[in-house]
Amino acid sequence: xxxxxxxxxxxxxxxxxxxxxxxxxxxxxxxxxxxxxxxxxxxxxxxxxxxxxxxxxxxxxxxxxxxxxxxxxxxxxxxxxxxxxxxxxxxxxxxxxxxxxxxxxxxxxxxxxxxxxxxxxxxxxxxxxxxxxxxxxxxxxxxxxxxxxxxxxxxxxxxxxxxxxxxxxxxxxxxxxxxxxxxxxxxxxxxxxxxxxxxxxxxxxxxxxxxxxxxxxxxxxxxxxxxxxxxxxxxxxxxxxxxxxxxxxxxxxxxxxxxxxxxxxxxxxxxxxxxxxxxxxxxxxxxxxxxxxxxxxxxxxxxxxxxxxxxxxxxxxxxxxxxxxxxxxxxxxxxxxxxxxxxxxxxxxxxxxxxxxxxxxxxxxxxxxxxxxxxxxxxxxxxxxxxxxxxxxxxxxxxxxxxxxxxxxxxxxxxxxxxxxxxxxxxxxxxxxxxxxxxxxxxxxxxxxxxxxxxxxxxxxxxxxxxxxxxxxxxxxxxxxxxxxxxxxxxxxxxxxxxxxxxxxxxxxxxxxxxxxxxxxxxxxxxxxxxxxxxxxxxxxxxxxxxxxxxxxxxxxxxxxxxxxxxxxxxxxxxxxxxxxxxxxxxxxxxxxxxxxxxxxxxxxxxxxxxxxxxxxxxxxxxxxxxxxxxxxxxxxxxxxxxxxxxxxxxxxxxxxxxxxxxxxxxxxxxxxxxxxxxxxxxxxxxxxxxxxxxxxxxxxxxxxxxxxxxxxxxxxxxxxxxxxxxxxxxxxxxxxxxxxxxxxxxxxxxxxxxxxxxxxxxxxxxxxxxxxxxxxxxxxxxxxxxxxxxxxxxxxxxxxxxxxxxxxxxxxxxxxxxxxxxxxxxxxxxxxxxxxxxxxxxxxxxxxxxxxxxxxxxxxxxxxxxxxxxxxxxxxxxxxxxxxxxxxxxxxxxxxxxxxxxxxxxxxxxxxxx
Length: 915
Description:
Blueprint: E1 3-8, E2 12-18, E3 26-28, H1 34-52, E4 73-77, E5 90-95, H2 96-101, H3 109-112, E6 120-121, E7 139-140, E8 150-153, E9 156-157, E10 191-199, E11 212-217, E12 225-234, E13 238-243, E14 259-271, E15 276-293, E16 296-316, E17 319-334, E18 344-361, E19 364-380, E20 384-389, E21 404-408, E22 413-428, E23 431-433, E24 436-455, E25 459-462, E26 465-467, E27 480-481, E28 484-485, H4 489-496, H5 505-513, E29 515-517, E30 520-522, E31 524-528, E32 531-549, E33 553-564, E34 571-583, E35 586-596, H6 601-608, E36 613-616, E37 619-620, E38 623-624, E39 628-634, E40 637-639, E41 647-659, E42 662-683, E43 689-711, E44 715-728, E45 738-739, E46 746-747, E47 756-764, E48 770-778, H7 779-786, E49 793-803, E50 806-815, E51 818-832, E52 843-855, E53 858-870, E54 876-884, E55 900-914
Parallel strand pairs: 3-4, 8-11, 20-25, 40-43, 47-52
Antiparallel strand pairs: 1-2, 2-4, 5-10, 6-7, 8-9, 10-11, 12-14, 12-55, 13-55, 14-15, 15-16, 16-17, 17-18, 18-19, 19-22, 20-21, 22-24, 23-24, 24-32, 25-31, 26-30, 27-30, 28-29, 31-36, 32-33, 33-34, 34-35, 35-41, 36-39, 37-38, 41-42, 42-43, 43-44, 44-49, 45-46, 47-48, 49-50, 50-53, 51-52, 53-54, ...
């Protein structure tokens, strides 16, 4: 007897039933969707019921034996579905196999998203420093910055309100702690699957204006499973590209870093009872790299840890309980390579706990979750920072030909975030109404968030040093240097038999060579006082979605409601998506949606932080006086009053059809962001500076993408190309920072010294002559100018295959040219004509220079090769080799005509044991 049944869904399942098997009654090799699993499960259950009614089945069964019971065996085979969604949702699903095959390098969640259309990375992802970095690069989905994309792990929000990805250019910050948009850096080894939304996102999800990334951790298995792995790379497995500027004198060369990076992980899945299972995982990534700090080789160390325990309990046949604990801290010991005494430590990451109940009933299902998160973003650093003049005694700035010699750090800061969230989601089964199939989903969530900013000590920033050979520092030994000599001047004059004549070139040279330290002192400083600020926000949300399905058309219409007690706005976001089937599997997708931004807690915290204090001093008879308040004594504070919640309106149009054994999709996404919060400079009643928040910001994102994905017997292929544009209104910018004519310029506001930088632009006039301009702008405007994640054209080609014991995957990524901003080691002096105090000289401050230049297009190819060595039936060793930047291509991270180092080919080796 032989029976063949076919189930048509996103793939075809072939179920063959053959006679005469006495054990292993069902062998379900693969089910590719919930509907298919239900069909297969029902058939398997039926066969098991029949088998259990038979007595004494024989292990060795002969067909003609009278003791043999002919029990049918069902084998289900089928191809895995492609990551593309087959619904109107703009979703892509990466299963465990794809996560494993396209996980390169650090294995962070963000890194594997590169294979999807429309996903862009910040340029720091390709810098030479990334070779030792453990933190993932920020990801942009739908044209927004990294912090505007929502991340969830098992339904628990993983977004950090402590940071807006503020360290993509500079890790060491004055008024803040270098952070990341995610609380914890989840390694893909912990994950079962990842779903990424870039458009037509269901109303169930909110608090974002970009995309949505949903990660699910691995489930407990029915049989014991244990594994451990070790991967690593080092400086002998890395290639670099060196570049030297036209004026390079050849006195020194760029040294390659000495570093090592190790990734260890272990995994245990254990059935405790027939209803209770446990998963325990541990993963640690550690990086050590040596850097040249002012001629001395020193080591930076970074560590990221993921530790998870998950319990799955089948309370009844229709009720499942999940308890999950996750501990994921990271830490880094750093220093600034061109700054003396600048050691600092950053601690981040967090802990989360989840209790979930999944209840399935005849009318539908209920998903209930209670979660708690705690994360930190803290640093320990020296609390005094000086920008000395590069003169004898403070001459380490000569190491990179700088005009200044920076020293010190920005003080200790602790930032802690606590979240408690309760949510319930209800989903109906299909029901008929008005002769149409209907589905309803609804739910609500309540969240309490608390953030603490604690500056543990006064941090003092000294800028604007004044050279004075005759200065008498007296008791001011920290911020003032007396002029000293190798030999007393009187001794030199005695040898000459006459007084030194400094107008004589020979005498002047003799005087200069005798200087041990040149006199200088600071006449301005900014103090960030020891303080503790706290902010709490309570938010509530609810949603309703109704789906109507006809044979060739389905539409989902819904609305999401959001409220928080800071902005106190009642926000309603409509969500509509539809799909029309022209003929079998030829589909048109439409969508119109609104998404409200959810990051309001950091605004409230900004308004609570104590602003810095500005102080000045003059000299009397070359003796520095006491510090006193400046004319404008404090830095700006933030005021947020009567603001609307920023939102984005989206229009989506798509087309999908089968092609060459795979699935082709064309998609257009238009996202217009309105009511974005910008800053406007102003003053309060007492003359104190205030940055007033306004809703004048706008931006627009457009993307056209073509995607083709296919799965074959032992191969899978994904191709996509996207053209994107991202424009930001000038109303988002702070604007000019300087007033007055050339030579008589002054700042037009009370700025934090760490907030200002110079942006260099090079253009050619009509005569072909190079014209260089240096504009003093805020770092806020720099982040808008750089368009870090706005490459117009991005293309991806991914291919994976299995052949016997071999497994191979490769990913090629093309990045089109763009205008980019490069950091440099240069600093430029700004002479402020403002008279800061009576008897004070004009203030001169030094600010870092950044350069705007064209970044060319380039390709990057990564490859992964694995060999499965089967020791016994249940024991396996996997050997792996990963190559990043296989063809040793340039990444163009070094600005044109400048000196720098670029990362080339990088190789990882690994070994994995599985039971």
